[in-house]
C-alpha cells in the first residue's frame, strides 16, 4: 500500500533532474470552465483528460486551472487555451477525447484544432 | 439551456462547492466524506477559511432570484440532494473567517445520488488549484485515510503537486486507500 514515505523516494529521484520549473509561471495556460453548468455538462472528465495528457507527455510550462461560468452555459464544457504563439483560443463542447487532441495538436504541435473552436460552433 | 441543472454524482456537488471556497480566497479547505453503514448515513463536510458571507442576505437573494438566472445554483442543488433523502443540510458562514457546509444523507435512501468518482474530484482540486491547500479525509465506519496537500508540499519542497510523478503517486494513493475502505462496496 502507498504511504507518504513513498513520496520521499520520488522527491529524491526528481531532485536529480534539471528541468523542474514552477508551473505557476506557465507559458501555456489551459483554463477549464468549472461552474455548476460546466460540471453538469461534463467538465470534470475534461479536466482529468487535460491533466493526464499534460502529465503523460511530461510537458513543462503548461498549467491546467479552473474558472467559473462565462455566461455561455449551452456551450459548456468550455476551455480556454493560451499559448505564446496563438494567444487565447476558446474551445467549446469539449470531451476527454477532444481534450487529448487539443494537447497533442495545438499545445505540442502548434496547430489550433479549429473544428472545436467557438468561432466554428456558433 | 437555463432550465434545471442536474449533477448525477455527489462528488460533482463536492467539486462545485469546494470551488466556491477557492473563489472565496480560502488558503485551506477541509473536505470530509464520512460513510457510516451502522448509522445508515453519509455525511459530507466542506470547511474553508475563505472570505465567508452573510447567510441571511444570501437566503434572501436566492428567494428573489429570477428563474432563468444561471448563477448561484450550486448550493441549492447540494441542499436539495440531501433533503430529498430525508437527510439534512447546514451552512454556517462568518464574513472574514470562513464557511462550513455539512450535508447529510440517508445512505440507503432510493433518492440518494451516488457518491460517484470522488477521487477524480480530489485530483482535479489538488492538480488545478495549486495555490489552495486541501485536507481530504475519507471514512467508512471505523476506518479512514487522510491526504493533505500540506503534507505533500512538506515532503516535496519546491516540486509542484501536479508534477507528473507526484500526480501519479496521488492517484495511486487515493485509488488504493479508497479500495481498501470500500471493500467492494459502491457508495
Short summary:
The complex is a heterodimer of chains A (about 120) and B (about 190). Chain A is built from four helices and four strands.
Give Rg of chain B in angstroms: 17 Å
Into which percent range does the helicity of residues of chain A fall? 25-40%
Pairing-aware structural class of the strands and helices of chain B?
Answer: alpha+beta
Largest sheet of chain B: 6 strands, mixed
Shape of chain A: globular
What CATH architecture of chain B do you see? 2-Layer Sandwich
Number of helices of chain A: 4
Number of domains of chain A: 1
Plain-language structure description:
The complex is a heterodimer of chains A (122) and B (187). Helices cover 35% and strands 18% of the residues of chain A. Chain A is of the alpha+beta class and 122 residues long. Chain A has a single domain (21-120), classed as Glutaredoxin, CATH 3.40.30. In chain A, strands 2-1-3-4 form a four-stranded mixed beta sheet, covered by helices on one side. The longest helix of chain A has 14 residues, at 43-56. The N and C termini of chain A lie far apart (49 Å). Chain B is of the alpha+beta class and 187 residues long. Chain B has a single domain (10-182), classed as Heat Shock Protein 90, CATH 3.30.565. Chain B is 39% helix and 25% strand. Chain B contains six helices and six strands. Chain B has helices at 10-23, 55-64, 74-83, 118-128, 149-156, 164-182; strands at residues 28-36, 41-48, 88-94, 98-106, 133-140, 143-148. A six-stranded mixed beta sheet of chain B has the order 3-4-2-1-5-6. In chain B, helix 1 packs parallel to helix 4. The relative contact order of chain B is 0.18. The mean pLDDT of chain B is 93. The A-B interface holds A 1-2, 4, 6-8, 10-11, 13-15, 20, 22-24, 32, 34-37, 39-40, 44-45, 47-48, 51, 55-56, 58, 64-66, 68-69, 71, 73-74 and B 1-2, 5-7, 12, 15-16, 19, 22-23, 70-71, 73-74, 77, 117, 120-121, 123-124, 127-131, 151-152, 155-160, 162-169, 172-173, 176-177, 180.
